[in-house]
Design brief:
The protein is an alpha/beta fold and 264 residues long. The protein has eight helices and six strands. Strands 2-1-3-4-6-5 form a six-stranded mixed β-sheet, sandwiched between helices. The N and C termini lie far apart (42 Å).
């Protein structure tokens, strides 16, 4: 079943968007936690980040999956490192995409990814639902679908990564006005990309949503807070030299702890 639009997914992420830029830096910080590891062949998907000194060759792409069948165009066991900033939650077959990336890793290669979690713009989703309910219409899908931490951890395990770990971080961004918040959502590549998106509801609808959001969430100094949850995931290409998980649930330990334990 096709859920997401391939044409919309191809929209380039604007590098200076708050979400994309901030998460790119968080990914870069996590990558540097693997302190004594060199990567000969690396792929970075999403917003740019400066090439780290321990990466010999880095392929940067805005979109890594090709065509409607979402093919990952890298041979098996060809990459030492895959870093993905966003985009994964826009795929129709996320489980299959993770399997493709795991296969593209060399033995003991590193996969590191970030994508929006279920708490991202939760208050805006509620305002949208209230305004649509007040208009006597059913709620339309106007925000991008997301997954929670437990589902994300299960997907990493299902894909066959060795020693998978899932973690989450949340932050609050403050906007001067509602339009800036919507513009940042669009510019960061997190706008709606469904294959069958609802029609544009008109300016009056969005004015009502803005009024609802401001009434419930505006701070005394006139700012609008927006909660952003980022899911992080790490996994390794299976190798004989790796330690074995000691207990179930390893995939939900802290990501920072896992990175420190794997540095070599």
């Amino acid at each position: 079943m096709k859920i997401f639009s391939g044409q919309a997914k191809a929209t380039k992420t604007i590098p200076d968007a708050v979400f994309a830029e901030g998460v790119a830096q968080m990914l870069a910080d996590r990558l540097r936690d693997v302190t004594r590891r060199d990567f000969a062949d690396a792929l970075w998907v999403g917003a740019d980040t400066p090439m780290d000194k321990n990466i010999a060759r880095l392929d940067r792409r805005d979109i890594a999956f090709e065509g409607e069948n979402e093919r990952f165009p890298f041979p098996e066991a060809s990459l030492d490192l895959i870093v993905v900033n966003g985009a994964l939650h826009t795929l129709n077959d996320l489980p299959g995409a993770l399997v493709q990336m795991r296969r593209a890793l060399k033995p003991d290669g590193l996969f590191l990814a970030a994508l929006p979690g279920g708490e991202t713009h939760h208050a805006l989703r509620e305002s949208l639902m209230r305004v649509e309910a007040a208009g006597g219409k059913g709620a339309a899908a106007r925000m991008h679908p997301t997954i929670d931490l437990q589902s994300w951890a299960a997907l990493l395990q299902r894909a066959g990564f060795a020693l998978p770990v899932a973690d989450t971080e949340a932050k609050t961004i403050f906007y001067k006005d509602f339009k800036r918040m919507l513009r940042d959502i669009k510019n960061s590549g997190e706008g709606l990309r469904l294959a069958q998106s609802p029609p544009y509801p008109g300016h009056d609808f969005w004015d009502a949503v803005a009024a609802d959001y401001q009434e419930r969430h505006q701070t005394p100094d006139g700012l609008l807070p927006a909660r952003i949850e980022i899911l992080f995931g790490i996994g390794w290409g299976p190798a004989e030299s790796q330690q074995k998980p000691q207990r179930p649930g390893t995939a939900q330990q802290r990501l920072a702890d896992a990175l420190q334990a794997r540095g070599h």
